[in-house]
Amino acid sequence: MLIVYSGDELYLERRPTSGIWGGLWSFPEISMAESNESDVTDWCQNRFATQPASIDQWETIRHSFTHFDLNIRPVVVRIENASSTVTEGIVGNWYPLYETPRVGLAAPVGKLMKSLQEAGQ
After folding, report:
1. CATH of the domain spanning 2-118
2. What are phi and psi of 110, to 5 degrees?
3. Rounded to 5 degrees, what are φ and ψ at 54?
4. What average pLDDT does the segment 71-88 reach?
5. Residues forming a β-bridge with 53
6. Strand partners for 63
7. What is the pLDDT of residues 59-75, one digit of tens each?
8. Domain ranges of the chain
9. Residue 58: band (very low, low, confident or very high) from pLDDT cuts 50, 70, 90
10. Which of 32, 42, 48, 54 is deepest in the core (most CB within 10 A)?
11. Residues 24, 4, 63, 16: what is their CA dihedral angle, to the nearest 10 degrees?
């Protein structure tokens, strides 16, 4: 899960209506090999036409559902001068980092937002 921020803004994407956290807003997700920062760099280049200024991998957290556990590996990505370019078909938006967005958020997303705010990013 990529926690992408630029200045005092945080990037969230709306999830598809079906599946886990259907229709809620969340951090973008990519599949990446262990410690493969080139995947994150490629994603930033494709999504925002920029390179990450910094990449910080946080410890994996576990979110439990009724019938399964989800391991989330947060990767905090700071970018500068984010382009408004977003891949076609992606519903994403920038939100103020220190305000809770007035959109539906999955519980772990809210917790990760708080962690980022407390870290003083």
Report:
1. 3.90.79.10
2. -60, -40
3. -155, 150
4. 75
5. none
6. 70
7. 877 766 667 677 778 88
8. 2-118
9. confident
10. 48
11. 30
